[in-house]
Write a structure and sequence with these properties.
It is a single chain. With 780 residues, this protein is an alpha+beta fold. Helices cover 29% and strands 24% of the residues. It is built from 17 helices and 32 strands. The protein is globular and about 85 Å long. It starts with 11 loop residues before the first strand and ends with a strand.
Length: 780
């Protein structure tokens, strides 16, 4: 079925010239290793990354002075001295995160006469269908071609350079890095680069092959390799680091990273370039081809070669839906390329980074960014790509249990606003407005239940999700304290990165029971109760305590202007257009604000979004998804359209979000979460679901995407959904579940004002017409 969708030839990010900035380069990756291809004719560079290269070592994420400081802050909050509480709360802050680093560069120097290439023939493109970057150009009558891809099954970055005239290819290749290192070259036509400073060690080895019997290879004393007069050359790049896990100091590692690389290359000798490429395609397409999208039967894109940057510029006027398709699938491509089983979770830049110290350290931020990285993984049919996130949560629970016990004298485990490869769980350095936020782990735990609700994998729920949920809930039960009107409250409490004006006029960020705190806790409590029902644990003492506490949680309030209150009191908001919409967590990605169950809050959420406006890339996508939950197609589309603003990297501070020429999203600077959030928002516009219900095209902008289809999206309950529409109306729906054959399942299907209860069997495909009538049943 949709697992083998027909590839879309328009899914290419294109350039007609060499990269001038890092955000012009094109990304490749295999989850662990990443590359950025610049495509220079005289001088080519591929920036390299390894997702385990970070500064630092395992840390102590506890503060024995925190309990005393916590008591002081709580008393100030109870006394209504919010400004003083905000100042005092700095005593609860910790140290900053460590920084994500880079690996180095592959550098190619070509013949000086190549400057005479025909610029009109230059093409550089990333083909999302093959996960391959291709560069072509003419010099005289010779066409030169470069192909670059990163293979997950073989853990190697592969480049092939060729000319269509025999003996036309000559170049010099070498490795370099901004990190202190040494290089050496050997008689096997290999270059070895090794890190020389303390911390996590790395090795990278470049291996060179050329056309049999045609051309010469010379290894120089300066550790460069020169190739002359060959037909083609294949370059393999493998890398290894001394990182073992967050609890092992790199200095204690017994790994020989260079030997690891050489052993890997020895294994790769058995494969030709064509075999490596075939293995790469089989692996990648198994994931990528699960979903296809077509938002218009006709496209403004013609056969002419149009650079993607030109298409971004023209989007404000032509609103080409095929560009929406490209950015949607780009988000899926990037997740496949930076988050695979066995790797680290996607960080603030995925895996791609050209700086020794990137913005915000490239660290995973847990107050929106890391979570948004994975919003699209389930609806966009990439559930395997979540595995690194769950491995990370398990590591966080280990360190987080120490932080909870020492800092807060609580059971369970806790994580704050920022972390790193060492599973940092303590508060960040600096002001309370960002540092004091112990809800990071709880938000991550909502992803555990979502994974189960999409996959219905009971083994995952029992062995991975439930133990982590248990620890998280034990902490939340201890963190909640009885407050005013006998409600359970969180104190201290902040709304991420947002200040309020206290009644005495002081700026403050610390209060009690912010709406986001309570919304996340409600979501986690609901998740563990549901999980306990599935696993037969509903009578456990923990679940009884959760059920008892549920009714005592501080309720979501509506402010006097009709919006949802961000804080427990209707404080003055000095920044009504603040980039975060934390108090709308219950609407999206949560499920506690719905039209059916909470109509007043649902209406208040709309007022809140109207008040916030739209800007700042990361939360533009959050707002788009939230408008989609409100079934407001016009406003969701406005947020989508807002993203298509071409950012000039030399003047990026003048922009409030947008896209770079390589379609990386700009905060600015580059943050990858909005790339992923975009795909999630588009999926939310087309299909929404609960475990029992499916809502079809609930926020379809009918005048913009009048005709179209999407195949292979996932709904909760392990159901695959394909839909098509014509003239803005549903044309056809196909549903199937491949869980187990001949197992009954029931879904209530909603479209406009129609609702149909359908009982189906797994292993069969059910086709419905635009009136939700079953017209065909077939085996998978």
């Amino acid at each position: 079925m949709a697992e083998n969708n027909i590839p879309n030839s328009n899914l290419k990010v294109r350039f007609s010239g060499e990269a001038r900035h890092w955000t012009d380069a094109l990304p490749i990756g295999n989850g662990r290793l990443g590359g950025m291809v610049w495509g220079g004719v005289l001088s080519e560079t591929i920036n390299l990354n390894d997702d385990t290269l970070w500064t630092g070592s395992p840390g102590n994420y506890t503060n024995p002075d925190a309990p005393k400081a916590l008591s002081e802050v709580r008393k100030l909050v109870n006394d209504g001295k919010y400004g003083e509480a905000t100042t005092s709360a700095v005593k609860l802050s910790g140290e900053g995160s460590n920084a994500y680093q880079l690996l180095g560069d592959i550098n190619f120097k070509f013949h000086e006469t190549d400057v005479e290439y025909d610029e009109t023939t230059y093409r550089r493109e990333l083909d999302l269908d093959t996960a391959t970057v291709k560069v072509t150009y003419l010099i005289g009558e010779v066409e030169f071609t470069r192909q670059h891809f990163a293979s997950y099954p073989d853990q190697v970055i592969v480049s092939k350079i060729s000319g269509n005239k025999s003996r036309s290819l000559s170049f010099t290749v070498f490795l370099d890095s901004k990190i202190p290192h040494r290089t050496s070259a050997n008689a096997q036509n290999q270059i070895v680069m090794e890190k020389t400073e303390d911390g996590i060690k790395f090795s990278a080895v470049l291996d060179l092959r050329i056309s049999d019997g045609i051309g010469t290879i010379t290894v120089f004393e300066d550790n460069k390799i020169k190739v002359e007069g060959c037909d083609w050359a294949v370059i393999l790049l493998v890398a290894s680091s001394s990182f073992e896990d967050p609890f092992t100091n790199p200095s204690d590692s017994k790994k020989d990273t260079t030997i690891d690389c050489l052993n890997n290359l020895e294994q790769l000798k058995r494969y030709s370039f064509e075999q490596l490429y075939s293995r790469h395609l089989d692996d990648y397409r198994n994931l990528f081809h699960r979903v296809s999208i077509n938002l218009s039967k006709s496209s403004t894109l013609t056969d002419s070669y149009v650079p993607t940057s030109d298409r971004i510029k023209s989007f404000k006027t032509d609103e080409d839906p095929s560009l929406i398709e490209l950015l949607f699938q780009y988000g899926r491509y990037l997740l496949i390329s930076c988050s695979r089983p066995g790797t680290q979770p996607a960080n603030l830049q995925g895996i791609w980074n050209d700086k020794v110290y990137p913005p915000w350290d490239g660290a995973p931020h847990l107050n929106i960014n890391l979570q948004m990285n994975y919003w699209h993984s389930l609806p966009c049919n990439l559930h395997e790509c979540q595995e690194p996130l769950f491995d990370f949560i398990k590591n966080l629970s280990v360190n987080g249990s120490k932080t909870a016990k020492v800092n807060y004298e609580a059971n369970g485990w806790v994580v704050h606003q920022v972390s790193d490869i060492w599973a940092k769980t303590s508060p960040d350095r600096g002001e309370a407005v960002w540092a004091l936020w112990p809800m990071g782990g709880a938000w991550l735990c909502t992803h555990l239940w979502e994974h189960y609700s999409y996959t219905m994998n009971k083994e995952f729920l029992a062995k991975i999700a439930y133990p982590l949920l248990e620890g998280c809930v034990w902490f939340l039960l201890d963190w909640l304290i009885e407050g005013k009107d006998e409600y359970l409250q969180t104190n201290p409490s902040t709304s991420p990165e947002h200040m309020f004006t206290a009644p005495d006029g002081q700026p403050a960020s610390v209060g009690y029971s912010t709406t986001m705190d309570m919304s996340i806790i409600k979501e986690v409590f609901s998740a563990i109760i549901s999980a306990a029902q599935v696993l037969g644990k509903s009578e456990d003492d923990l679940i009884k305590k959760v059920v008892e506490s549920q009714s005592k949680l501080y309720p979501t309030q509506i402010a006097k202007d009709g919006s949802i209150m961000e804080w427990a009191q209707d404080f003055v908001d000095p920044d009504v257009h603040h980039r975060h919409i934390s108090h709308l967590f219950g609407l999206f990605p949560g499920h506690t604000i719905t039209l059916e169950e909470t109509p007043e809050l649902f209406k208040a959420a709309e007022v809140t979004l109207n008040n916030r406006g739209g800007s700042w890339m990361v939360n533009t996508t959050w707002k788009a998804a939230s408008w989609a939950r409100l079934h407001n197609s016009e406003r969701a589309y406005q947020m989508i359209k807002h993203l298509f603003d071409l950012v000039d990297p030399e003047n990026e501070s003048n922009y409030e979000g947008g896209l770079y020429s390589n379609m990386f999203t700009a905060h600015p600077p580059f943050q990858i979460d909005a790339n992923f959030g975009f795909s999630a928002a588009v999926a939310e516009m087309l299909i929404q679901s609960s475990v029992t219900d499916i809502y079809l095209i609930p926020a379809l902008p009918r005048d913009k995407w009048r005709n179209g289809s999407v195949e292979g999206l996932k709904a909760r309950g392990n159901v695959t959904v394909s839909i098509s529409w014509s003239d803005g109306d549903l044309h056809e729906l196909r549903l199937w579940s491949d869980d187990r054959e001949n197992q009954r399942f029931t879904k209530t299907i909603h479209y406009n004002d129609m609702s149909v209860v359908a009982t189906m069997l797994t292993g069969k495909v059910y086709t419905f017409d635009g009136k939700l009538r079953t017209v065909k049943t077939a085996s998978l």
